[in-house]
Amino acid sequence: MTTYSSDPRRHTAETAQSMADVRYEIDRIDRLLVEIIAERQSFMDAAARIKGSRSAVHDRARIEDVVAKVKAECPKHGLSPAIAEPVWRTMIDRCIAYEFESYDALVRPLDAKP
């Protein structure tokens, strides 16, 4: 299980007084996002291993379900859906591409002839 760590938080959006304060917090948050997205990516490897066929990698209904769930969370956290939806759709698109690569890497050794 991933344990998220961060530099100490120095400011909130309300207490930041300078662009240096804002940039510090954005950089801190970006490092956390990288860690969280890397964990999400690891589950693409698991999905590739678990799915029975390459055609199961791209699942339109699941994509729309994920986006709908994200958009439903937005108001609870003050996140603009206009930011969230394209970010998640891009991330999902790239994760699907990664999962295809992962799936293919698992299948290729099985196809290789001695």
Would you kindly provide a written description of the structure presented here, covering whatever features stand out?
Helix content is 71%, strand content 0%. α1 packs parallel to α3. By secondary structure, the protein is mainly alpha-helical. The longest helix is centred in the first third of the chain and has 32 residues, at 19-50.
Could you list some keywords that capture this structure?
114 residues; 3 helices; elongated
Summarize the structure.
By secondary structure, the protein is mainly α. It is 71% helix and 0% strand.
Q: Averaged pLDDT, please?
A: 93
**SS field, number of helical segments:** 3
Radius of gyration: 18 Å
- Low-confidence spans: none
The total strand number stands at 0
Beginning-to-end CA distance, first to last residue: 38 Å
Output the helix-strand order. HHH
Q: Based on CA inertia axes, which overall geometry fits?
A: elongated
Secondary-structure class: mainly alpha
Topology (elements, then pairings):
Blueprint: H1 19-50, H2 60-77, H3 81-111
